[in-house]
From TrEMBL:
Name of the protein: Flagellar assembly protein T C-terminal domain-containing protein
Flagellar assembly protein T C-terminal domain sequence ranges: 53-129
Pfam families: FlgT_C
Highest taxon listed in the record's lineage: Bacteria
Upper taxonomic lineage: Bacteria, Bacillati, Bacillota, Clostridia, Halanaerobiales
Species name: Halobacteroides halobius (strain ATCC 35273 / DSM 5150 / MD-1)
Amino acid sequence: MRKIFFLCLVFIVLMSQLTYGQQLFTDEIDQLTADLFSDYLKQSQGYIAKIEDESVYLNLGLQAGILKGDTFSVLREYDLLKDPITGVILGTLNHKIATLKVKEVKAKFSVAQVIEKSSLELQVGDRVKRQKQRIGILKFNATKLPIDIVNLLQESLIANLKRKGQFKVISKDKLEKLINKLKLENTLSQDELQLIGNKLKLDLLVTGEIFQEEKKLFIKGELYSTKLDSLVREEVMTISKENKLINYYLQQFKEATLDYRLLTTSKLFKYQFLDLVVANIDQQLDQEIILNTRQALHILNYQAQELLTEGRIDSYYRTKYDDYKLVVVDSNNDQISELIAQNFNYLFKFSWQKDKYIKQRIKGFKRSRPKAVVKLATKDYLITRNINHQLQFNLITRNNYKKNFKLQLNKNEGYRLAMGDLDQDKKKEIVLTSYQGKGKYKIKIYTKAGKLETVLPGRYGPAVLVTDLEKDGRLELVVHTTKKDNRVLVYNWAQDELVKSWESKPLDLKIRDLAVGDITEDKSLELLVLMANDKESKINIYQK
């Protein structure tokens, strides 16, 4: 009996905390609504101040929140409603005699035209009232957040606007049905917003995003006007993750969502592997794992949670003056990649031809080190770094590598690099290392033009990776720490900065390189982490 009483008490306390948390959340949404709709929640009633030909002047303007395209009902009082016993005036009875549409807005007045009228003529002094705006509340975009928070936000906004009495809010089901029918993505363009507005005859649409930091959620609301075909207002609010309701949803989500789990750890290989890439480099159409030692390239395959040796390429030989970095490129667009590596201060390509791997020198790249292969405007580029500390972007066309443009670096920059549109501004950033001594690096992010955008706080190892690990359209930056705190870290872009979303447990060997690929052939990407000491190596494979 005592146990039941205790459980009931715990339940009551929990529910009271959640209710209090919901009230705080509702209060925050009230403020967001007030800010976002400030122009629409101002004075909505006024009078006809002047009539001139077909122009009707209203005593409401920008200061009253009036916008071009707003519609007004013209009302004329025709009788007083009185209490038959006491004679007390209960109100007025009005005729709607016309509908006006605003065509020009000034600070203190606006100019409208009649779009619908009765037999009665308009008069100066007639009362006007802004008609209810038809509005749709879209679900806000959110990355790595529980759908409960997204739904709570949408429902709170709908309820809030309905209470205001100045909007006709269409159902969220009607919106979602149309979006599914049109096969639109979560992130909607302005043209797509206008299309939705036209299809449902809406005046306004609310959309936005939810981001998260370590201690806060950022909710960005956007108000789109179909009349003006433009975004008319944007507001950002924050809410603490300590809010009981928000914290409850986040904890539930965390327990239900797996982080990157360790799929398997390979056996110890009796080699010091230096670098790691994943690609299909033969005609088998599966992904191989390619690693290098000083004297050979080793090819592994993933089978039944083990990495098995498939073969080796003995024509590879790295001197102490060569970079051990490996890059891969499918220059023939046949789904079979070639390896590019530096040997004897020259660049060589290793490609599968008929039944063996052929080594060919790539001309024009003496003392240039391969760094990455990237796609820019649908074209593939091999990025190299020369002895003058310049990044050279070389356009790849089948077996030709044409030097296209350069980017000057500082002497200590560019040992390793990656590229990708981390902040989703449709421009790819260059992520590169900047050596700070004692085996540690800063991670710097530049624009393609060479302008420094940001520096990741802290010091890291040399390997960097930019990839869409979760296949959600948002790129992750993968880096690693060194020595005792030997971890892999994953960062995501949120609210104008990189936020750490995951870190591995400390690893027992020094991290040498990072790579991704679908080695399990299950249509998901695995994260591969190469670790090595002076004599042995092993690989951890993580999966979301």
